[in-house]
Specification:
Blueprint lengths: L2 H20 L5 H16 L4 H15 L6 H8 L2 H9 L4 H17 L1 H9 L2 H9 L4 H14 L3 H6 L6 H9 L3 H14 L3 H9 L2 H11 L2 H15 L5 H6 L2 H10 L3 H14 L3 H15 L4 H14 L6 H6 L2 H15 L2 H9 L2 H8 L5 H15 L9 H4 L2 H34 L5
Length: 430
């Protein structure tokens, strides 16, 4: 090639790189007009240096403008198949800039992920992940995490031996990419066969680490994915031993209702193992003693669920949870509507309260009796209260309550009468 051509290509390369550096301040219409030109230059075989500069410039343009418009535009002009073709025969700095270009296109343009996969990009990325380390590997992992959000990718990723790389993507890369990988792992973990493979690949520990490090949104995604794979029978005990229970307690104390639902579901699964049920109960009792009414309600719901596990009954009773639950139930039964009392009754609250009428603790007996009285005064609940009416402590509490109410009514009448007498005796008060 003549010197004049080389100089021309060098000038063109310099102009493209200058455009790339100015892309964050260039008008959108200018960038739009340059995309097809850069795509043609990328596909040209006349100068590798110009191709590299074009890939770099497209990478910079992809995240400019509003939303994903520029990234999608680049994909529509056919840059992705060209970059994939060049990637398989490139090396060194040219290869790195091509990977970064593809990373930018699939990170900022969701539709580009479909284009990349349907042009054989998934197989290329997985194959490269087996050979690269360092920063290059991180870009490849982040591309994979973006592709794994597609259902068609999750269907084939196991057969392509890419699952181990997806698990690694939960640990390595930017937080957004790690969250994407965690979401994909959770989706894959729904299938029992994949769940076992994910556990064997170390997904549980990767997700726990992400759970600890992530922001509120990431914690929800990691917590949900972790809950999915924790349901594997061989994972229940190691899951708790790895320190997952306090992380879900944090979700239960949080303000996001989805987080609370995730924690409730996971605790009910983990409590199948007695050692886990003991630890969970201790944390729930701590929440019941705090001032967060929403968290207390969630903790109470879980304890009611755990009380149906045969191995949980003894340590729930010894944990100090029952007096707090009965007190909460008494307040709920007094203040809630008839519909709420019906829901509590359907959940099995009345038999539990009747059993507590024979407890050794006088305070517990009185709280249980007072809650039952609230149920007995609801006409819709009287039919299932017949057993309580036969218990002596309940009858005594009923009699005491009648006496207290009579005394209150007498006191109120006396105060009203005294007020009238005072008015008649002292006309100046009128």
């Amino acid at each position: 090639m003549s010197t004049s051509w080389e100089e021309s290509f060098e000038l063109l390369k310099s102009a493209i790189i200058k455009l790339a550096r100015l892309s964050n301040s260039a008008p959108a219409h200018v960038l739009t007009r340059t995309v097809p030109i850069l795509t043609r230059l990328l596909g040209s075989s006349s100068s590798p240096s110009v191709q590299g500069a074009s890939a770099y410039c497209l990478k910079c343009i992809a995240h400019q403008g509003d939303g994903d418009r520029m990234a999608i535009l680049i994909g529509q002009y056919g840059a992705i198949p060209i970059a994939l073709r060049l990637l398989q025969h490139s090396e060194g700095s040219f290869q790195r800039v091509l990977v970064k270009c593809l990373w930018s296109l699939v990170t900022f343009g969701k539709h580009n992920r479909v284009i990349l996969v349907r042009n054989g990009g998934l197989e290329i990325i997985i194959r490269m992940l087996g050979s690269y380390t360092g920063r290059m590997r991180q870009y490849l992992l982040e591309i994979l995490s973006a592709l794994a959000l597609l259902r068609e990718v999750r269907r084939v990723i196991i057969s392509l031996e890419g699952l181990r790389f997806l698990v690694q993507a939960v640990k390595f890369g930017g937080m957004a990419s790690r969250e994407r990988a965690a979401h994909a792992v959770g989706c894959l973990g729904v299938a029992k066969k994949a769940r076992r493979v994910l556990v064997d690949l170390g997904a549980m520990h990767m997700l726990i680490e992400l759970f600890r490090e992530g922001d509120a949104s990431t914690k929800l995604v990691a917590g949900n994915a972790l809950g999915v794979i924790s349901s594997h029978i061989h994972c229940i005990r190691p899951f708790a031993q790895a320190g997952a229970i306090p992380l879900y307690v944090e979700l239960l104390r949080g303000h996001d209702p989805i987080g609370k639902e995730i924690a409730e579901d996971v605790f009910c699964v983990l409590a199948v193992a007695e050692v886990n049920a003991v630890a969970i109960t201790e944390h729930l009792v701590e929440i019941l003693r705090e001032n967060d009414d929403v968290a207390k309600a969630a903790a109470a719901d879980i304890l009611w669920d755990l009380s149906s596990y045969h191995h949980s009954v003894s340590f729930i009773r010894n944990s100090g949870a029952i007096p707090i639950l009965v007190q909460l139930l008494r307040i709920e039964a007094v203040n809630y509507s008839a519909g709420d009392r019906a829901a509590l009754a359907e959940a099995g609250a009345i038999p539990v309260l009747i059993d507590l009428l024979g407890d050794e603790s006088e305070e517990l007996r009185e709280n249980a009796a007072e809650a039952l009285i609230s149920f007995s005064e609801d006409p819709s609940q009287r039919s299932i209260m017949s057993e309580a009416f036969r218990v002596t402590s309940f009858q005594e509490m009923q009699n005491r309550l009648v006496q207290i109410r009579s005394s209150d009514e007498y006191m109120a009448r006396s105060l009203r009468q005294m007020s009238m007498e005072q008015l008649l005796w002292d006309p100046d008060m009128v």
